[in-house]
Protein: Aldo/keto reductase
Amino acid sequence: MPTSLKDTTTLHNGVKMPWFGLGVFKVKEGEEVVESVKAAIRNGYVSIDTAAIYGNEEGVGQAIKESGVPRENLFITTKLWNSEQGYESTLQAFETSLNKLGLEYLDLYLIHWPGKDKYKETWRAFEKLYKEGRVRAIGVSNFQTHHLEDLISSAEIKPMVNQVEYHPHLTQKELQAFCKKEGIQLEAWSPLKQGQLLNDPVLEDIAHKYNKTVAQVILRWDLQNEVVTIPKSIKEQRIIENANVFDFELSQEDMERIDSLNQDSRAGSHPDKMTVGFE
Structure:
């Protein structure tokens, strides 16, 4: 089990990825994202997760530069937006993201959503970028088991990561078992269900028992399930608090109580129905 913010899981290609990071979904470009990322790095975070569609890659890049932390000590992820899927358009979108971030390479590049018919071509471009050393690891986001099976059937290189909506109301057990079997690391976005879980009575009861916050209990549950997690916050105090999950362990019984909250309910779109940007 990870014991600090520096602890990593080893992806199937040998690259080490931190178990815990900062997500910047819906964090405004400019001062808000710069300060959020700098606060995270200042407090020991090494992994930062953004996406082209968030519109804040430039701010993330500025924060990285201003943080003074050597580039090789950080783990930076961004994602290809739906409208850019396809071979040539992916290669162009990658250059755009890299330029905005002001980086020479990415640690992880993800296909943001599967869509219907272009992700195999997109993946060929990802494989090219990976072979050229422009990206240290490549993966997908919001892929269901059927998408992964289809992609793997023709891929030369298997995705290293699948980042999906994952929280106690959406425990994704079958998908996780499939990813484990295939050696694909599962990663959680929206681990707190965009705040909807923070008043859950079962979670409040467990939090009280460990003298932790509900958020800390959920994030700890992620880690004990071997799921990488990237909670978002713009408040330094919350950024510190979110990461304060390495000094306690949930019992098997409490892990099961949290599992039992599953409702297969989502805060975001269902991957099979997500059409934005694909029109």
User: Anything to note?
Assistant: The chain has a mean pLDDT of 97. Residues 31 and 163 are 27 Å apart (CA to CA).
